[in-house]
Write a structure and sequence with these properties.
Order of helices and strands: HHHHHEEEHHE
Number of strands: 4
Distance between the termini: 48 Å
Largest sheet: 4 strands, mixed
Structural class: alpha+beta
Length: 181
């Protein structure tokens, strides 16, 4: 990271690029906005961290005007409907960790099927969505995404009379053992 403030980086970008970046931000397309800022500012010494901070500042600037990507529903009826639409017979519900540079750690809630064998994403549970879903419930020592996935996954598995599997609810781990029949 350089000593240049994010506002100064923003002003160094050409007006057309700033307009394009704001368009991506207003569409909640964070990665595209970061890519444009990084590629355009790289010639001036702007690094990837700086690009992320510039885009973050644009998110703060636009606030409620951003058309946020809707959260995946975590209510039992919606999850059951999604599971019913999976091809094949649901034999388990599984929660698995994933992560990226935009959302940090999150949990995917999956329906594991047989005939045909496969896994089908029912919901992706990001931190913000998990906090909203949990409301006043304290997740304790769990990451909010893990607490929300555990609660929703157990309820769905009970409704479908199938096992629920979450190999690593306490610690984000993309390599945790997966469910096996």
């Amino acid at each position: 990271m350089t000593d240049i403030a994010t506002a100064d980086w923003w002003e160094l970008l050409p007006a057309g690029i700033r307009e394009q970046v704001d368009g991506y931000v207003l569409q909640d397309a964070r990665m595209q906005a970061i890519r444009i800022v990084y590629e355009t500012g790289r010639a001036h010494g702007l690094g990837l961290n700086d690009a992320q901070l510039v885009v973050h500042d644009r998110y703060l600037h636009h606030g409620d005007r951003i058309a946020r990507t809707p959260d995946c529903p975590l209510d039992l009826e919606s999850l059951a409907a999604r599971a019913a639409g999976a091809p094949g017979r649901v034999v388990a519900i599984e929660a698995v960790w994933d992560g990226d540079t935009v959302h940090d750690w999150f949990v995917d809630l999956l329906a594991v099927t047989a005939d045909p064998a496969g896994e089908h994403r029912l919901a992706t549970i990001y931190r913000g969505a998990a906090v909203r879903h949990l409301g006043d419930e304290d997740p304790g020592m769990l990451h909010p995404s893990a607490a929300a996935a555990d609660r929703a996954g157990r309820a769905l598995a009970a409704r479908l009379s199938v096992p629920f599997h979450f190999a690593s609810p306490d610690t984000p781990d993309e390599q945790a053992p997966r469910w096996r029949p």
